[in-house]
Design a protein that fits this description.
- The chain is elongated, with a radius of gyration of 20 Å.
- The strands form two sheets. A six-stranded antiparallel β-barrel has the order 1-2-3-6-5-4. The protein has a six-stranded antiparallel β-barrel with strand order 8-9-10-13-12-11.
- The protein has helices spanning 8-11, 204-221, and strands at 18-23, 26-35, 39-43, 53-59, 66-74, 83-87, 94-96, 104-116, 123-130, 134-139, 149-157, 160-176, 179-186.
- By secondary structure, the chain is mainly β.
- It has two domains: 8-96, Thrombin, subunit H; 100-221, Beta Barrel (Thrombin, subunit H), CATH 2.40.10.
- The longest helix has 18 residues, at 204-221.
């Protein structure tokens, strides 16, 4: 019998095998062990009391978006040790488009430096706003839109300094007094297949989740 397109398995097709369970100001990365028509089976959270419900996100392998998933913890006979089952209503699975990510604005803007791919120089800039999907930057110098750029800056939250180094590409440019304003889509893009051999590589899905949490914390504190 053909499977309905509205079931959980169809909706989560093409996502990465991880469930990022939201908790407090952060998340716990859990393995997504199985996706069924009406539920998902995930790794048992570490050191957390059993909940009646859970909410988290999963990301698509191609970086096209994020799904918010909430489910009800259900008992299951012959369950795999170290796992739990979440019963999920397909209507409660919500796709978060990049343009819909919460965005925080900085007043005054945050000082930053931009390093364009292929160059060792860092260009002074300011970060005006930030979301998990993109940012707006201002600089006196003109940037090449066809090349990947890395945006270096720091954000302080609750006496913690978060050092940011975000890769992105310019999607629009607006002339302003004394320079240029740039809209930037974060991410390296599918065409960037070469990954560093050292520990500097950060999984794109984890970085997106980290940014979502960071932005949410900033919004709450404004």
């Amino acid at each position: 019998m053909a499977r309905k397109k509205s079931d959980v398995r169809s909706i989560l097709e093409g996502t990465e095998p991880y469930f990022y369970m939201m908790k407090g100001d952060g998340y716990e990365k859990l393995r997504l062990l199985e996706v069924r028509e009406d539920s998902i089976v995930i790794e048992l959270p570490k050191g957390a009391p059993m909940r009646k419900t859970m909410i988290g996100i999963v990301t698509f392998e191609d970086g096209s978006g994020v799904l918010e998933v909430d489910g009800r913890v259900e008992a299951e006979e012959n369950a795999t040790a170290g796992s739990i089952r979440l019963c999920v209503d397909p209507e409660h699975v919500r796709k978060l488009e990049r343009r819909a990510f919460p965005r925080v604005s900085f007043a005054p803007p945050i000082d930053a430096e931009i390093q364009v791919e292929g160059s060792c120089d860092r260009i002074p800039a300011r970060i005006v706003n930030l979301s998990a999907g993109g940012l707006r930057a201002e600089s006196e110098k003109e940037l090449p839109p066809e090349r990947l750029s890395t945006f270096h800056f720091e954000i302080e939250i609750d006496d913690e300094i978060h050092e940011m180094a975000l890769d992105g590409r310019i999607v629009y440019e607006i002339p302003i007094d004394g320079g240029h304003a740039y809209g930037v889509k974060l991410g390296r893009g599918k065409e960037d297949e070469t990954l560093p051999d050292d520990d500097s590589f950060v999984d794109p899905a984890e970085r997106m989740v980290d940014l979502m949490n960071l932005v949410n914390r900033l919004i709450v504190r404004q």
